[in-house]
User: What shape does this take?
Amino acid sequence: MNSGSMRPSVVILAGLVIGLALGFAYTWFYLPAPRDQIAASQLPAADKDRYRALAALAFAANGDRVRAEARLQRLGEDRLSAVIDAQAQNAAQAGSAAEARALADLAAALRSPQTAGGPTQSLPGIVTVTTAPARRAVTATPPPAFLPFASPTPPVAERLVFRLTSSDAVCDPALPQGLLQVYVVDADGEQLPGVRVSVTAEGGQTDVFYTGLAADMGPGYADFLMSPQARYTVTVGDAGEPATGILAPVCERPGGDPYMGGIRTRFRP
Amino acid sequence: MRGGRFLWFLISLAIGIVLGLAAGWAAAPLRAPAGAAQDLQSPDKTEWVLMVAEVYAADGDAAAAAQRLAQLGAPPVLRVAQEAIINATQLGYTQSDLDTMARLVHGLQSLPSAEPQP
Assistant: This one.
């Protein structure tokens, strides 16, 4: 085709169309527009979950509640402890035990009133824990200085040998049938949050959950729904003595109808 | 006369390219996923890296740290951590925090996949 025979409008239109195609293709394939940077509060839900989990793991590592709280405030969420409680429960159900424990500890720490120790004092190489620990202290010994590169040691509560001190049948039709209630307390009777509870059915299936995830029931509370006629073994903490033969009782309604009741248990070192 | 048409062709081509570039950039958000961790602004990204470094300081698991850093974007995780140290310096983080991140970088260097690409 001879451009000399083309009308000016066709030439201009052809130039525009070709230019548009070239420009669009270039940006599409080679030069994408820079994406806007976003704040942590604008993260999608999945990334917010990752951020919270990371904040909890960092809190488990350094015990710095002030810093953990400041980090979580970047997400711009209300009712922090409730959100983290829910995430801890999800993590426990997904089998992420360490993450669930860290989240439960962080939620418990956020719920507890701040100690007068003030924010963590940071020194090069050494971080000294001066804020409240995630779990309540079970001895009068103050929390030790935390060496960032020391090998991790299990939290105090996890090293205690918890034993079953009471087990009571609960016949309350208002409660879910087969409800196993677990209360974990320290030597002084104070409830302990974030303690691992494992329940193993006769068939061998084990469920793991943590105390303190039901905020309205107390920091040392956890529960589990038992199946009818199944016997369970409950172990609290990493070194706890297994409580065997736990079986949901048969209760009677006022009219005489039987139903599966629950059990209230209490564990302490 | 032919030279005049060619000139108009070039001018319209240039205008078309500019419009095409603008249209391509305008359409970019439509094909890009919603903002995610890799789009975090610098202070939040730096805090993310510091959290990873603190966890690494406690558990010494460089592979897990690399996995957590990989959520921040496509560049090699080692570079992500190095950039975070630079940003942390500018943002006034303490020497202790910088040391913690530096040790993370040191740990990441033991991972072959964390080597920065040339």
Remarks:
- Confidence is low (pLDDT under 50) at residues 114-118 of chain B.
- Chain B touches chain A through 56 residues (CB under 8 Å).
- Chain B is about 75% helix and 0% strand.
